[in-house]
Amino acid sequence: MTTASIADPLPAARPVAPVQQVACAVTSGVATSGVPSTVHVLHQISALPLPFEQPLFRHYPGMKLGQPQNLDFFSQQLGAVAQQLVRQAPQQEWVLTAPPYFRLPAAANLLAERVGQILQQQGLAARLQPLRLLPGKQGMRNAEEFSNAYNYSKNTLAQRVAERERVQRMLDTSGLASSMTGRAVIVINDINVTGTQQKFIQQTLDQLQVACVHWLYIFQVEPVLAACHPETEHQINTSQLADRESYAAVLNDPATQITARCISRLFNEETAAFGQILACLTPQAQQRVRHLAQLEERYDSAIFAEKMALLGVCHA
After folding, report:
1. Contact 251/285 with Cβ under 8 angstroms?
2. 185: closest CA among 94, 75, 92, 101?
3. SS3 305
4. Any idea what the Cα angle at residue 101 is, between residues 67 and 157, rounded to 5°?
């Protein structure tokens, strides 16, 4: 079985660069679901303040935006765990996946692609099966809906559930049964805070009657801490590359595999700040951002008209 590649606007798959292996204690636990389900975590977050100087934390913000060196760093860590799982059950047919996306992938989707490459390089069979969202349903009805989607890492549990219900309604399940039913599934993701996203994806996998599910996370926040501080992920996301100059440098780098979050961060800015960031971008980066924003479709909404107009002026 061969490894598929994520299609649409991604550049050609690049070889995963070797990085220094970090000593990480992988913890695991059983998740409650209709099929056997196990959670594997590189780092369990159980207390604040967070150790932002540690490698897993330092590489995380850049990974979320699509910086290749940070994606490679985490794919090595997650790939090592995936190799152990596949080697322990070679009789299983294995499938790799990640949370659903439309055109622009999230960092987790890029990590899943890289983990698939690593397994393939080791002679291990695991098919990459992306979960996709239906076309024509990406437009944001109002600024509040967009804010809830972009600021998910700061949201309360109720807001998280509402956002995941919205995304779940857009999931394209056509063709998934033939590629996933009866298979062992590895779901690559970056962080588990409240378990809301996992719950909705698990419901889909239960309906598909997969053989078992292994959830691979970089971070997991312990439930008591998550209940009190659901914004923990936001702290990690913004611990690096928080200033506009650093962000503009990420967008200007042609090697960046711009993620959905990377683009949405730009459109979450106030119009004046949006224009200031555009002024820091090269013509090539401006053109790329405009193309990806149009491709994602959610920015066709009237609430983004002024910002899309600014992009058009820069591109002209």
Report:
1. yes
2. 94
3. helix
4. 95
d(CA 78, CA 114): 10
Structure tokens at 190: 């970056």
- Cα→Cα distances 250→20, 159, 210, 265, Å: 23, 29, 38, 12
* DSSP secondary structure letter of residue 256: -
Query: Which domains does the chain carry?
Result: 27-242 (3.40.50)
Tokens of 243: 């200033």
Q: Is 75 exposed, middle or buried (0-12, 13-18, 19+ CB in 10 A)?
A: buried
Q: How far apart are the two ends of the chain, measured CA to CA in Å?
A: 46
Identify any residues that bridge with 96 across adjacent strands, giving them in sequence order. 128, 186
Inter-residue long-range contacts of 20-27, CB under 8 Å, 24+ positions, other chains counted: 21/76, 21/77, 21/80, 22/55, 22/56, 22/73, 22/77, 24/56, 24/77, 26/81, 27/220
The Cα 313–Cα 316 span in angstroms is: 5
Q: With contact defined as beta carbons under 8 Å apart, do 257 and 10 qualify?
A: yes
pLDDT at 51: 97
Q: Is the bond preceding residue 61 a cis peptide, omega within 30 degrees?
A: no
Per the confidence metrics, is the pTM higher than 0.90?
no
Q: Which two tokens stand for residue 230?
A: 């659901």
Note the pLDDT of residue 161: 74
Strand 184-192 vs strand 171-172: parallel, antiparallel, or unpaired?
unpaired
CB atoms within 10 A of CB 67: 24
Residue 163 is predicted with a pLDDT of: 73
Low-confidence ranges of the chain (pLDDT < 50): 1-24
The whole-number pLDDT of residue 32 equals 55
Fill in the amino acid letter for 31: A
